[in-house]
Amino acid sequence: KYFPLSVGVNMTDFSISGIIICVEKLVSHYGPVKVLDGVTFDVKKGEIFMVIGRSGCGKSTLLKQMCGLLKPTSGHIIYRGKDLAAMDEDELSAMQRTIGIAFQSSGLFNSMTVGENVAMPMREFGGVDPKLIDELVRYKLNLVGLAHAQHLMPSELSGGMRKRAGLARAIALDPDLVYFDEPSAGLDPIMAAGLDNMILKLKSLLNTTFVIVTHELDSIRLAADRILMLDMGEVIFCGTLEEAAASPVDRLRQFFDRRADDFIVQRNITS
Asked: CA dist 268 to 51, 54, 251, Å?
């Protein structure tokens, strides 16, 4: 099992070590079912960190806990020197205003225009001068290639455009850290590649850190700086693509080689 060198690091050393968030010995349950079991890793500032694994392995649960949307059973999630798991409601709400979250479904409000969706965090949480909001909205939409869509309704956008609009809203307050759940889900390969390149562009321009849950091999190969693989709620690999290529972990090899589990193959043969 992978245990990063930063485990046990003094939280005041985070800025020196380049770590933006550290997860340590995280355990999570849904009722009696243990979903995450001792998950430990860290994310470095400015990297694209992708979480992979088969369905039901705990990826989305991990992302929700790193956003503060779910409380862990035990363990620590250290962000900006503070443990999310120990925060009260007010502290957690303040923390969530410093991160961006892009949902798989885009999460746009259908009753608002695209521009109004992007402006909402600025009006509600950002302390932004109201006179500057329209200009900032245009800038954020331009970053994701949607400068023309400010006055459109979400229903007038394609799936890929809605994903990009959701990303524009996620970066509305210039967060250092953005979480993205399955950005390529439901997109054709061309649109998915365009979104991947958009994420690379934002990383380059804004030094934004991305934590992305995905199962798309093309996205991983194009954009990932490091990947974390979960299996049965545990970390079985964390490292670069080069390290993944040299890894002997069979489940990781299955994922990259697109090999089915032996028992699934056997069942299909005998059924």
From this structure: 29, 19, 20
For residue 185, give the 3-state DSSP assignment. Answer: coil
From 8-12, 166-170, 216-220, 234-238, the region with the lowest mean pLDDT: 8-12
Q: Are strands 48-52 and 226-231 parallel, antiparallel or unpaired?
A: parallel
Burial class (CB within 10 angstroms; exposed 0-12, middle 13-18, buried 19+) of 252? buried
Q: Where are the alpha helices (DSSP H) in 125-261?
A: 130-143, 159-170, 189-206, 217-223, 241-246, 250-257
Q: Which residues lie below 8 Å from residue 263, measured CB to CB, with a gap of 6+?
A: none
pTM for the whole structure: 0.85
Band the pLDDT of 6: cuts 50, 70, 90: very low
Would you give the end-to-end CA distance of the chain in angstroms? Answer: 36
12: left (phi over 0), alpha (psi -120 to 50) or beta: alpha
Closest CA to 54 of 244, 226, 232: 232
